[in-house]
Amino acid sequence: MWADKETPDDLLGFKVHADLIVDVIKDNDVLPVTIGVFGDWGSGKSSILKMVEKELIGNDKDGFKDGTLVLYFNGWVFEGYDDAKAALLESIIEKFNKHKTLGSKVKHETLKLLKSVKWMRLMGLGFKKIAVPAATAYLTGGISLIPYLLNEFSQIEPAELANKLRGEEAENFLSSIIKKNEDEEITMVREFRDDFKMMLDKSNIEKLVVIIDDLDRCTPDRLIENLEAIKLFLNVEKTAFVIGADPRIVRHAIELRYKTDGIENSSDVESRNERIVSDYLEKLIQVPYYLPKLTDNEVETYLSLLFCQKELGGDFKKVLEAFHSTRENNRYDVFGLGDVDSILKQEEKSKLTNSVSIIASLAPIITEGLKGNPRQIKRFLNTYSLRDRLVRVAKISDFKMDILAKLMVLEYSSQSLFRQIYEWQSSQKGEPKEVVELELFASKNNTEKIKEKYSADWSSDKVIRWLNTEPKLSGMDLRDYYWITRDQLTTSISGSSLISPHIRLLVKKLIEPVSGSALNRTVNNEIKDKLSEGDYETLISLLEKELIKSPEITEIHEAFIELMAENFPNVIDAYIRVIKKIDNDKIPFSLAQNFKLIEAKNSGVEKIYNVFSKGSSIYNNINSER
């Protein structure tokens, strides 16, 4: 099994990206700078950030080397804090305060800054959520920092002030004071930046590097709080911020916080929101850097190194060194098991013998099905390894692991087709004639015949390549292979461990829209022509699961109906599958009108009507008008 966590060991040939980021940080002429390391979920951002940290500080436990202080901050760790912005600021200041050599130099400045952060937290949190003793402590410690609060409080009788701070209107009371003194608040932010700069100067460090990871795991509010904290340090000399995130999640959070609404033309509103998001990111991120997806050769190399890591243990170090040495002169070709043959002992080679053929067969279909995503590849292999163990524990003879791997790729990338093969083989003693015919048509690239006899889903380029990839399934008894994956026929590996936060976010927006128009905007602006086939399949699968779990929730049905109205593929079949599984009496009868409204856009919805259970309210409501 392989651990799903970031690593400073470079198995992807990504050190070149880390070296580039380090080179920018070391260029004093570009400081202060904020660098965005952008990539999809699981693309290797965290590993690159760990490499950057290691390159800057080596093995120094205090994060301080050659005049550079490095703080690695995981935004997701502070997800449960009341104020993630304050958590980030406090972490940076505490790094100075508790440092064994820097702390004594800046003791006064850190204490002053920490008081400022407490005030910022207080203003964001509100008095009503803080115990009176804590509020009193904040007031006592921070009076000199915010003079206008002292002035306001001095005009109120002590007893009345105490009541205001304890009462239900405490938060509104504090907010009203702050709003009346917005110029003072701006002054406070400016003073914080000046105090922070003074701390850096007194510490005598050459630069501060703050690495912020996992922002895309945070809720939108927490993500924005972290970004707002970073904005406090913009233009502070000697600082470099390196942020790792999925840009789609970041853009959504910014749009959610700062979006504009109105009754004017919706396209104007969307355009304005897009400008707001772009302007925000451009002001915050001076150097955006997008990570590339792995190529076919890089996927095969990654697989080879993962299997070497698993089988060789401590001896893997020499394989990794050989890989890095080879990559200095050759960045393009596969680094495979043949490249390490000369440095391995015979017993080490024996451990890898079974892996050689598996890697060769896995590489092309994994590249196609998992889109060159390192995390998905590693989680795929972990599921594959568990099933390999199950095969051995169950003592299944004549089981071909490359057949299992091929089916697993289809299971992830096209769940509806994976289920269809299951249905075919279950009624034909494991050897479906449809698969034989599909492989024959695919070998001749006869997509028209496939469309005519099966469906357009089987004729896509991705599926044709899958059908043509070795090993072929014709003549294979698939019963054992589907028995091994039977636990996944309803949940699927992509429905559990391989789903990106972006797809989860889209599902949430579909089933929890803020308005009817928001649902339409999500479908047309974020799904239509925006998702790969695999991501779309995953999204539909998640919607199915949500509806099976909660058939009484109108919004989930409406998400399906909106997709039907826009003629998305497979959505009607998916909806019918769910109807057959759930208690139809729980389906809101008012949905009948929704279906009637979209008939003109998609006549295919009519085949849904007779699938509803006879006697159910939705069935009666629809058919009474026909």
From TrEMBL:
Superkingdom, taxonomy of origin: Bacteria
Domain KAP NTPase, residue spans: 16-390
Coiled-coil regions listed: none
Pfam families registered for this protein in UniProt: KAP_NTPase
Protein name: NTPase
Organism of derivation: Sphingobacterium paramultivorum
Lineage, highest ranks first: Bacteria, Pseudomonadati, Bacteroidota, Sphingobacteriia, Sphingobacteriales
